[in-house]
Amino acid sequence: MTERPIAVMWFRNDLRLADNPALLAAVKWAKENDGAVLPVFILDDVISDQLGGATKWWLEKSLTALNRNIADLGDTKSDRALRLFKGNAKTVLETIADDKSVKAVFWNRLYDKPSTKRDTEIKAALQNHGLTCESHKANLLFEPWDVKTGSDTDFKVYSPFWRACLKLPTPREPKSAPESLALFKGEVDEQINIADFDLSPKPVNWAGGLEERFSPGEQGAKDQLFDFIDDRLTDYADLRDRPDRRVTSELSPHLRFGEISPYQVWHAANHYADANPGKGKTASKFIAELGWREFAHHILYHATDLRSVPLQGQFKHFPWSDDAKGLRAWQKGQTGFPIVDAGMRELWHTGYMHNRVRMIVGSILVKHLLIHWRDGLAWFDDTLVDACPANNPFSWQWIGGCGADAAPYFRIFNPVLQGEKFDPKGEYVRQWVPELRDMPEQYIHKPWEASPLILKAADVTLGKTYPEPLIGLKEGRERALEAYQDMKKAA
Ligand code: FAD
User: Fold this and answer.
1) pTM of the predicted model over 0.90
2) What is the Å distance from ligand 1's center to 395 Cα?
3) 3-state SS string for the chain
4) What does the pLDDT look like over 5-44, one tens digit per residue?
5) Could you confirm whether 108 is annotated as catalytic?
6) Which of 240, 289, 379, 388 to mutate to test the pocket of ligand 1 (most atoms within 8 A of CB)?
7) Which of 120, 185, 354, 400 has its CA 20 to 30 A from that of 478?
8) What's the pLDDT tens digit per position in 314-352?
């Protein structure tokens, strides 16, 4: 390649220049050694396995934005400032390191088992070749091994976990992006183009709704954060459960890909609280949600296999139903429960769904329909832009009653009451289920209770223009409770 010493910056779920400790360390190393930085991204099996349709779409946009930002900082016009590779990450890095000028590799830590296993092996191999190898803390505020109960174990319940986090030293202030980047500009073998990653939607571009809603990339993440802090954080504590009001930050996909760090978010919310006396409660509520993200990663790190194995062992005996028709109706937003169908259609169209609605659609699937939470997890993995190795399985186990700090299985959401409480005028339902647009408020969440006259006036024919509910609410609830009892007997 070159005689100049090279530091490799290995980007993964940290697709940003600001507050990126591994990048700063690589830049510092290059400066001290009169060397250059080689930024790389490797699409290996570990990353591929964690991508669905919507996250692939996001990743392509995010890598394109990162490449542009690196090129600007590194003073090059190259559309290949970020070097892309496909294949086994260890092989790729070892091949790069075959060049004697490559002396150091830097990355930020991940917490899922396949990534930690891969990274440990790579660190050992590269150190064996005599390279400097550094991993940094960037994607979590509190490392999973630093938060311990009084008896030195990991946490299983959120509230004491978060209390323990808040007693640890305050998360550091975010760091700025490097001021400049001595970029390695030579050739590197086996590097490919972004099109070779094959991430674009196929066979048709189905991502129009995602494009309308989100701007992947570091700038999009910053804009999203500051719009939220300026306009919506003020109402967060009071209205965060209302899908019809859209007051939450919608930062989840940006955090998923590390286009913004939790440190930037934490400090922005705290600065807002300092500058706005009386707004501490809403800021703390928001920060506590970041705490759920930390908790999900804590559980992910310590669990054997969060995607497949219920944290509460008795759920291995749960009599799940193999209801392919019910699953398909749920996926397509055709269950006959308006708030559920609205959520599932919002997800399909935009790649996103409000948290409250995620809980409602999840509950209908695993309780009224008795379909395995892993089927819900798989669908969310494919369709959510924020689908994440920690939050998604963690939340599905929580919904399924078998996770950490889970809502007990026998506490069953009623989608009508949930709809009436959190979408009181039915505006969210009207937006996503237009065939119910003219239903009066009183029946928007339960059209099956409306008289034939009311249905006719709203131009609704149940079973024709809009489905009948897949199952009666009472019948579904009782069936779920029986299944729960059967599991307890079998366990
Ligand atoms: P805000 O309310 O603005 O919260 C700020 C940030 O805190 C979020 O961006 C997110 O990073 C974190 N956060 C908020 N709520 C939670 C939570 N309950 N658990 C963990 N972290 C949270 N979140 C994902 O990021 N990826 C997923 O794949 C995912 N799957 C989910 C599946 C189910 C069945 C359920 C019930 C929840 C899931 N969540 C997931 C959690 C939550 O719904 C989303 O994080 C949230 O809706 C994102 O919107 P927001 O950024 O506006 O959240």
Assistant:
1) yes
2) 8
3) CCCCCEEEEEECCCCCCCCCHHHHHHHHHHHHCCCEEEEEEEECHHHHHCCCHHHHHHHHHHHHHHHHHHHHHCCCCCCCCCEEEECCHHHHHHHHHCCCCEEEEEEECCCCHHHHHHHHHHHHHHHHCCCEEEEECCCCCCCCCCCCCCCCCCCCCHHHHHHHHHHCCCCCCCCCCCCCCCECCCCCCCCECHHHHCCCCCCCCCCHHHHHHCCCCHHHHHHHHHHHHHHHHHHHHHHCCCCCCCCCCCCHHHHHCCCCCHHHHHHHHHHHHHHCCCCHHHHHHHHHHHHHHHHHHHHHHHCCCCCCCCCCHHHHHCCCCCCHHHHHHHHCCCCCCHHHHHHHHHHHHHCCCCHHHHHHHHHHHHHHCCCCHHHHHHHHHHHCCCCCCCHHHHHHHHHCCCCCCCCCCCCCCCHHHHHHHHCCCCHHHHHHCHHHCCCCHHHCCCHHHCCHHHHHHCCCCECCCECCCCCCHHHHHHHHHHHHHHHHHHC
4) 999 999 999 999 999 999 999 999 999 999 999 999 999 9
5) no
6) 289
7) 354
8) 999 999 999 999 999 999 999 999 999 999 999 999 999
